[in-house]
Amino acid sequence: MRGLVLPAVFLLALGACGQRADLKPAAGKELPVAPHGREDRPKAEELLKPGPQAAPERSVELRRKSEERTDDPFDLPPSDE
After folding, report:
1. What sign has the CA pseudo-torsion 59, 64, 70, 73?
2. Which residues contact 44 (CB under 8 A, 6 or more apart)?
């Protein structure tokens, strides 16, 4: 019983330490310089937003209904070797 209580208390304490304020650079620090070809510096929220390569959109259409599968030439039975 005691072995379950300690991890549960730890997880509750860890979950309670989230910050809800806006992100700002540390004291005495600045945001990175503007990227090449850009006049203004990006804000912290822009830097945290994943780019299209980090979170690509799905390019395959999902199946909406059951369909008969086509014959797969690579679906072979296991060999006895």
Report:
1. positive
2. 22, 23, 24, 25, 31
Distances (CA, A) of 48 to 25, 41, 54: 13, 14, 11
pTM of the model as a whole = 0.34
DSSP letters spanning the chain: -HHHHHHHHHHHHHHTT---SPP-PPTT--PPPPPTT-SSPPPHHHHHS--TTTSPPP-SPPP-S--PPPP-TT--PPP--
Distance, in Å, from the CA atom of 77 to the CA atom of 74, rounded to the nearest integer, reads 9
Token reading at 60: 């395959």
Over residues 16-30, the pLDDT tens digits come to 666 677 777 888 888
